[in-house]
Each structure stands twice: as C-alpha cells, then as structure tokens.
TrEMBL record:
Residues 85-104 are annotated as: Disordered. Residues 234-337 form the DNA polymerase III delta subunit C-terminal domain. Its EC number is 2.7.7.7. It catalyses: DNA(n) + a 2'-deoxyribonucleoside 5'-triphosphate = DNA(n+1) + diphosphate. Gene3D superfamilies: 1.20.272.10, P-loop containing nucleotide triphosphate hydrolases (3.40.50.300). This is DNA polymerase III subunit delta'.
Length: 346
C-alpha cells in the first residue's frame, strides 16, 4: 500500500497539522482516485510506532503488523458487507471490521448499507482505553452507505467525540450525507489528478492506451485501470459501435443481447454515451468517447435536442431503480426504443 503521486500535496498538508487534527475528517471526491488507500495510509501512519519523516507508516513495527493484518486494537473499519466481500472477504472476518458477517453466515444476500448495529458497537470501542495510550481511529467507507438510522447513531458519537479518537469518513457523493454529519467533519476535497500524472501512472501499470481508458473513467486513474481489461474494452466498443450506427440498430435485438450483461454496466455505458452526445450537440466536446468523436459528430446533426434532454432524464430516473429487481429485457427494450426515437428521420 503506497501513496499515489497525485496525493502527495494533500498528504503533506495533513501532516503539517498532525498534532492538531480535528475529531472527524471527510475525504470527498470522485470514485477511482484512491481515497480509501489514502485514508488507510493516514490511519496506519497515525498508529505507527516509528513513522517515517513524511508521516508514512514504517511497515516494520508491531503496530504496522497488526494494522496490515486488520487486527490493530485501536482501529476499526466500518463498511457494508457487500463491499467487504467484494474486496476479498478479509475485512469482514476481522476483529477490526465491526459486525459485517451475520447475513453472510445466514446465507442472505450481502447488504449494500452499513448496519446500525455496526455503529452501535462502536460505543463500547470508543469507551475503552487505547493501546499504549495512543490514538483510536475509525474509518467509515463509504459514508453514503449509512442509512438514516445508522447516520443518526453515528451522529451521536460525532457530537460528543471521545478523546484521542479520529473518524475518517470517505464519500464519493457528499450530497447524499446528512447535513449534520457533514457539519461535524472537516472536509478535505480530493480532486482528480492532473491528466499527465494519471497517464504516467497508467503507463507504469502496463495499460496499452492510458489516455483512452482515462477518458472513459472521467479522469479517475484507478477506475481507468479497471477499465483497461481487454474483454471489457471489446464489449464496450461493440456496444458503443451499435449505438453509433443508427441504420443498422435494432432496439429489440440489442435488448435481447444485452440483457445477458450486468444491467448496471449497460446503464453506465448508455448514460456516458448520451452525456457525450448532448455535450457534442451543445458545445462540440467529447469527454468519455474520444475514439468515437466522429460518430458523435454525425449523430449530433440529426438528434432532436428536446428529445435528447428528455431521454437523459429518463436514464437518470431509471438509474435510481436499476439495483431493484427488474425485468432486464423489458427495461432495455424500452430504453433502446426510446433511444432510436430521439433522432430525426434522415
């Protein structure tokens, strides 16, 4: 676990205030820029018994060993069961991740929300004496996984913060947090890295076309690395190719094919395509699909702007329920038929 090059300035800014940190920090920024790695490094560095001059953990002391094994007595990771399982299942079995294994043991579908029981168990944790009189750190990831009851339970602790305790909340969507939660935290914006830094990093990771992958990820390098998979790139290129060839586009046949792919992925592709189509229509700019700029230029000539805006609103409304039980075929048929209708006859 290392600090990403684009995070060094923010890291040094925090380290300059190391002896006067607030009781709660809210790390906010886009998905895929390394906020979780940054937060874990910050927690490990603060708990480390022999930190380096720049505040990074030494990686050699007993505290670092406990932390890396998710067994540090003064650290807790609070995240949803679904996220713990997706990250490899190491956290949900650890003493340092509170209350995330009940539904797994019962054979239920993993929850995407942080449970109120996880936060309530923190009451015992924060009232214990810290190990060797050091700090106590609680990492909540992501904070928007808190439902209203869980958020209110956490708020009670934040309102009367225990001594020597630091809460680090990570959020990709700060607008989804309770205003009272946000007001109890010191906000730390984590912006997208400069394009040159991100491309250099992706090149070092062996990505064949780092600029294209970075564009597809909206400038987020870690997300771009995930998108660089050859199988994904081929599937994405096939989908966008179909969307760009209106004369050959068959909405019902396309729905039949794409119902076999994860619905959230298809929705993501479609929303980004429509974003770029609207962007080109309004401003002549392309964000996500530089490799299909000419296709977007041609489509922009025949798309009806009012219909395009209505279709974008339809996609936004659909996105809100995409994780609910839905008939994927019927949903995609409706979306693809609506897509074909936003263009004027040639």
């Amino acid at each position: 676990m290392t600090l990403y090059s684009w995070q060094k300035e923010i890291w040094h800014r925090i380290q300059s205030r190391k002896d006067n940190l607030p009781h709660a920090i809210l790390l906010q920024g886009r998905t895929g820029i390394g906020k979780f790695t940054f937060a874990r490094l910050l927690a490990q560095g603060l708990l480390c018994e022999s930190p380096l001059n720049d505040g990074l953990p030494c990686g050699q002391c007993a505290a670092c060993g406990w932390f890396e094994q998710m067994n540090h007595p003064d650290y807790r990771l609070i995240e949803s069961e679904a996220l713990s399982q997706a990250s490899g299942g190491s956290d949900d079995k650890s003493e340092s991740s509170v209350g995330v294994d009940e539904s797994k043991a019962a054979g239920k579908k993993a929850s995407n929300q942080i449970k109120v029981s996880q936060v309530r168990e923190l009451l015992d944790f924060v009232n214990l004496s810290t190990h060797r009189s050091g700090m106590r750190i609680i990492l909540v990831h992501p904070a928007e996984s808190l439902n209203i009851n869980t958020a209110n339970a956490l708020l009670k602790i934040l309102e009367e913060p225990p001594p020597k305790t630091l809460f680090i909340l990570i959020t990709h969507q700060p607008q989804r947090l309770l205003p009272t939660i946000r007001s109890r935290c010191q906000k730390l914006d984590m912006p997208l890295p400069e394009k040159s830094l991100a491309i250099d990093w992706l090149t070092g990771q062996g990505v064949d076309d780092p600029a294209l992958c970075l564009a597809q990820a909206g400038g987020a390098p870690l997300a771009a690395l995930e998108l660089s998979n050859a199988t994904y790139q081929q599937s994405r290129k096939t989908f966008v190719g179909e969307m760009s060839e209106l004369k050959q586009f068959d909405p019902l046949a396309a729905a039949e094919r794409y119902q076999k792919i994860e619905l959230t992925l298809v929705m993501n592709w479609l929303q980004k395509w429509i974003y770029d189509l609207l962007s080109f229509k309004m401003a002549g700019e392309v964000l996500y699909h530089p490799d299909f700029a000419k296709n977007l230029q041609e489509l922009a000539k025949t798309v009806n702007l009012s219909a395009l805006l209505n279709y974008q609103r339809e996609l936004i409304a659909t996105q809100r329920v995409v994780n609910h039980p839905l008939n994927a075929l019927l949903l995609l048929e409706s979306l693809f038929l609506s897509y074909a209708d936003i263009f004027e006859p040639v």
